[in-house]
Design goal:
It is found in: Cell membrane. Pfam families: BPD_transp_1. With about 180 residues, this protein is an all-alpha fold. The chain contains 8 helices and no strands. It has a single domain (about 5-185), classed as MetI-like (MetI-like fold), CATH 1.10.3720. It has helices at about 5-15, 15-30, 40-60, 65-75, 80-105, 110-115, 135-145, 150-185. It is elongated.
Length: about 180
């Protein structure tokens, strides 16, 4: 990765989630007038996921042995084919792990989603238009209620979020382990 790209990825790693939401809100909603939507929220979450995915993918691609690349190049394969047929398949489990870690990072974010998709009490199936219901906002809305039943539902929502992230981390670990075993064999 070039030093300039690495610098920006490192800078984005420390980016507060609300700043990512403000960026998309300012550009997508205010400047282009596209309105609140799940798509705008996904753009903000993508900004948050990029550093995690990029750095993890970079580390994974470095683990691909140079001998594999050199062997493919020695056989006359062009560089692009070496990348597509040798490097990516060898690192595929790690790249999948990088994507899962990025999703796990974004799954519980509230601030960028609130700024870009607002909050709807009902489910909106059109991700390109209108406010969206999200689990973190559901938890926030319910925990503020005086009714114990609503507070219990909020805790259930929080537990659901926690379990979703846990499942993603376990999945990422198992995919990573499978890839390491495959590369080691």
């Amino acid at each position: 990765m070039s030093p300039v790209i690495r610098f920006f990825v490192d800078a984005m790693s420390g980016l507060p989630s609300i700043v990512a939401g403000l960026l998309v809100y300012t550009v997508w909603i205010l400047r282009f007038g596209m309105g609140y939507s799940g798509f705008a929220a996904s753009m903000a979450l993508t900004v948050l996921m990029l550093p995690t995915v990029t750095r993890t993918a970079e580390e994974i691609l470095r683990t691909v042995p140079d001998t594999l690349r050199e062997a493919a190049l020695a056989l006359g394969a062009p560089q692009w084919r070496v990348v597509l047929r040798v490097v990516v398949p060898t690192a595929s489990s790690g790249l999948m792990t990088a994507a899962i870690l990025g999703v796990a990072r974004a799954i519980g974010e509230t601030a960028p989603v609130l700024l870009t998709a607002q909050y709807a009490a009902a489910t909106n199936t059109n991700v390109f238009e209108g406010k969206q219901a999200t689990l973190p906002m559901f938890v926030y809305q319910l925990i503020r209620q005086p009714n114990q039943t609503q507070i219990d539902r909020a805790w259930t929502g929080a537990l659901t979020l926690l379990l979703m992230v846990l499942v993603l981390f376990v999945l990422a670990r198992s995919i990573g382990e499978r890839g390491r075993r495959k590369r080691g064999a």
